[in-house]
Amino acid sequence: VILIRARPIVNITSTVGPAENLRNIDPSKAGCLTDKASTVTCFTFETCFKLEPLVLHDSVKEWTVQIHYKLEAEIFQEDLKFSRVWFGPDHNLQSSTIENDVSNVYYRNILCQQHTAYIKENTVDIQSPIALRITYSLKENEIPVFKPGDPFPSLNGMPLLVQNQSEKTFFAYFQKECGDNDICESQVQVHAELMLTKIHDTQYELVIGQNSAIILNMTVFNNGESAYESRLFVHFPSSFSYINTVKQNETKYVNCNPFNDTFVVCILGNPFKKFAVSNIQLKFDSKELNGIGNQLDFLIVSNTTSREVKPQGPLVLRVNVIKRAELLLTGSARPEQVFYGGQIKSDSSVKYYDEIGSRVLHTYQVFNSGPLKVSNLEVHVTWPFQVASHYNPGKWLLYLDEIPVVKALNGGTCNISQEYINPLGLLVRSEVHDVLHPHESIDSVKDALVNQMDLNSTTDKNSGKEYYLNRVRRELNNIVNTESYVRNKEKPLRFVKIDCLLGNAECFKFQCVVNNLQKNQEATIFIKARLWSNTLLQISPKVGSVQIVSRAKIHLPFELSLQQNRSDDKFEVVTDALLLALLEQKENGILSWWYIVLAVLAGILLLALLVYLLWKLGFFNRRRPDFMLNGEVEEEELDESHELITRNS
């Protein structure tokens, strides 16, 4: 015998309401009908269900089953791990899922459960609807165990539920300022500019070191419907660092925060309403720009979850980075004028420094007015060490006695071949005074030169004056011709300019490196040498003055890519050497003028003294008659005459 038994099949019908409670949820308004004291937005709704058998018979009215339901918010959707809402009444748990059992469910009996959902704080997405799902299932009773001979248990209390109707998904909608189609069609536009020198519509110029910080000024406006989750993304070069957002009084303050080292995100509004305008200024630190590329880009993009009517593409602002350090090169010669003279002698007989001639000091100074520091600055110096001679080389001119020195805050060095430093190996003679101390007077210079001439003299007849003069005349033909000028019309003085550029001087070049020359700092190069008097005497006996020129030039390595004014990167320093005989003439001329002036003053003083003595002796007083006295005498005579006449009568 085969017994076939069947369980009853039931449908479940579910509804959600009221519909108005699931629409126009205002996220800016806290509380709801069932929880007015809530500090966050909430909304209340009901889920209802009823059971209906597929086959209706009398025993259905006696059914009592137990229903299990599960209410979920959003997390049932794919790729969503968090929900924007949580269900009460447990405010501490804040669960986005509710599960409960409903007992004693009868046929066609409608049962409802009330739920309150709370919007989480700081919820950004208030445009897309909140998805909710209710799922029902039967809690089956355990089938009783019966023994042989017992009656079969009834299956009426163990129905089967049709699964395709046991689940319902519904939505809760936020209040939106959109059109009739319930779709927000926004039109967000961005205008951006950098507070720098503009060279084109979207290109700017930034001079390193000139600005410690730069401002990115942006104006955002919406000409369409409300834009939800409206954000502004700013990507900036890694060479900059974000400082803060500058507060503007004219418009609503927009909160901007760094997302990472090169991104800043600004929340425009949720929603960014129709016709809204917002001005945003971001400040960036630009102090660490040394060593970067020549161009840097700022990328600005706006974004919203609303539908964009006329989407604006990324806005690119390009910054041309200018490395500028304005350098100035100047120089001077000390002393301003030196003197040479004495007898001509062979160079091979010179053993000591003091036999060469006067000390000279050429100084070159580099000043950096900024705004950028210069890490490795080179100064190339051209030094005239000999007079150009085709047949008789080796006529010394400015003889270096030590390596040039760089004095700067961060130091520096001069790279020069050792062969140019005291190539003859001359010695220092301690008993001879240095004739070119900067603070010495002309008289001391003259006396020292005279003493030097005495030391250089010799008793050998072959080394006499006439012998050397003849030798000079022969060597003059071998020296490169120089140009002579008359520079004083009253007393003509011919002088020679010895310069590498004129071709009448032999020069060598060396480099001096200055380390990290900062803004408003200077570096000084000191070049000490001796003026070789012997050579100047051999140039021409008729020339009274010789000008010797050294040159320097600033050189910047190509990799620095510095921009600056090149017109003041060169300088020349001139040592003006005067023949000692002309110095004596000059002093004699000065003395003769003083004699005249003193004689005139003495004459005037003597004349004044003579006039004073004559005045004291009364020489300048004249005798004049006293008319008052004469009148008194005449009056007395008239009185006497009147008395005589009276008596006679």
Shape: elongated
Return the CATH topology of the largest domain.
Answer: Immunoglobulin-like
Q: Strand content of the residues, in percent?
A: 35-45%
The assigned structural class equals: mainly beta
**Please, what is the average pLDDT?**
81
**Sheet with the most strands?**
12 strands, mixed
What is the tally of beta strands?
Answer: 36
Termini separation? 224 Å
What is the number of helical segments per DSSP (H or I, 4+ residues)? 5
Helix fraction bin: 10-25%
- CATH homologous superfamily assignment of the largest domain: ntegrin, alpha v. Chain A, domain 4
**What number of structural domains do the residues give?**
3
Can you tell me the residue ranges where pLDDT is under 50 for at least 5 consecutive residues?
Answer: 435-480
CATH architecture tag of the largest domain = Sandwich
Oligomer: single chain
Rg result = 56 Å
**CATH class (first level) name of the largest domain:** Mainly Beta
Architecture overview:
One of its GO terms (molecular function) is integrin binding. This protein is mostly beta strands and 649 residues long. It has three domains: 9-172, Immunoglobulin-like, CATH 2.60.40; 185-313, Immunoglobulin-like (Sandwich), CATH 2.60.40; 327-585, Sandwich (Immunoglobulin-like), CATH 2.60.40. The chain contains five helices and 36 strands. Strands 12, 13, 15, 17, 18, 20, 22, 24, 27, 28, 33 and 35 form a twelve-stranded mixed β-sheet that branches. A hairpin with a 7-residue loop joins strand 30 (484-486) and strand 31 (494-498). The radius of gyration is 56 Å and the shape is elongated. Residues 435-480 have low confidence and may be disordered.
